[in-house]
Amino acid sequence: MKISWSHILFFKINRSIGGHPRRDAVMLFCAQTLIYVFVSVVLLWALMVLPPEPFKWFIQLIMTAGFFALLTSYSIALVWPHRRPSLEFPEIQQLLEPLGTWKSFPSDHTLVSFIFFSIPLFVGAPWYVLTLFFLFAVSISFARVYVGVHYPRDIVGGFVLALGYSLLACWLLGEVTQPLYVFFTDFFR
Question: What pTM was computed for the model?
Answer without folding.
Answer: 0.92
